[in-house]
What we know:
Elements: H1 2-17, H2 19-22, H3 26-43, H4 48-59, H5 66-100, H6 105-108, H7 116-133, H8 136-150, H9 154-173, H10 180-187, H11 193-219, H12 239-263, H13 267-285, H14 291-294, H15 299-305, H16 308-326, H17 329-340, H18 344-354, H19 360-370, H20 381-384, H21 391-402, H22 412-421, H23 425-451
Helix pairs in contact: 1-3, 1-16, 3-16, 5-10, 5-12, 5-13, 5-15, 5-16, 7-8, 7-9, 7-11, 8-9, 8-22, 9-11, 9-21, 9-22, 9-23, 10-19, 11-21, 11-23, 12-13, 16-19, 17-19, 18-21, 21-23
Amino acid sequence: MASIILVVFVLGYLAITLEHPLRIDKAATALITGVVCWLLYFMSGGSSTLAQEAATLAREGVQPDMHALMEGRLMHHLQEISAILLFLMGAMTIVELIDAHDGFRVITDKITARRKVSLLWIIAWVTFFLSAVLDNLTTAIVMVSLSRKLIADQKTRWFFGGVIIIAANAGGAWSPIGDVTTTMLWIGRQVTTWPLLQHVFLPAAVSLIAPLVVFSFILRGEEVQRPEHGDRPISEATRREKNLVFIAGITSLLMVPVIKNTTHLPPFMGMMLSLGILWLLTELIHSKKIMDEKSRFTALNALRKIDMPSVLFFLGILLAVSSLAEVGILREWSESLRASLGNVFLIDGAIGLISSVVDNVPLVAASKEMYAVTPHLVGDPWFDAFVQDGVFWQFLAYTAGTGGSILIIGSAAGVAVMGIERISFGWYLRHIALWALLGYLAGGLVFVLQSA
């Protein structure tokens, strides 16, 4: 049955990667794949590990209920998956509330550089730090929308779009709330906030600096051609409302790691508290307006606009990966990787390269299932790499986050920019991919050197 589950997973994932040619939304495919994998698991009567658990209960005089044991394993995985999804939904809603008030213009309106190189560096670093607070997908969309208002020439915008993809993915790698995969590691307690920032920030920054230097030579001496007519929308929010919601929203997101570290509550609890406070604040700000005027600024409207298909995609793919863990497939893969590569840096590096083609969410989910967190240091370099905040988990956050920049299809940020700017896969491969790979390798080398 394990082989059949693996076949279903592979076929489902193949359909996900062919989403556009098949014209089938990946969320639908992921949900079907996840549920069918678990359906097959229940029909098979469980795994050999579960059979051993039932045998142990029988020896202790307890009549084992296999259905209850299998359901218990499903609910165990669903508990962690639900925590991730609630966290993401809260973050998405806060971002939508800020965007509804045009809050991001507090930053973007300050950018007035005229030379391409100066503008490129400004946009890159704004993207890098903004994605650490928001998420790489949202940041990429915001910054590409900004570039369309600042740059008239399409090919120049394509270069800027490539840098935005690299910067957004790099910025999300060193923050626990900047990328879905980093958030998964943070919620799963493989990494914690300060050590992650301390060890991944510099490699992530280097992965951006390396391609930036190359592009600075390519674009040197050129002036930015501004659009003749901007398409700036007229905001119904006042300047005071815009600034207040932007500051409150960013502060609420920054407070999530603080709440976790001080109260030891699960991260989604801090996110729900932050969302509740911002929700209350926006209700008070617009309390004197009639319903038609304030409807676009409410949290209810923001909840309608969040990307629920992405949330359901994560649900389906994480369910599917957890089924592979239950039948022992991921454990076999982990042993195979150790035998063939034998080095945690090489394993993480390979995962990062694969993430340029395969979505990094299932890769990180599989890695979490393949390798358990070692409870304490034992003096063995291999096992010590898997302690909380060990080099395996920190380097995984870096490689899974930045590796997706190598190809434009390797990350949600890349796919979003590809759709907005109509960047072709071939153009990105010829003009951006090599330099993104250079940044990925340079940042990885910095991580290895600082871990030595």
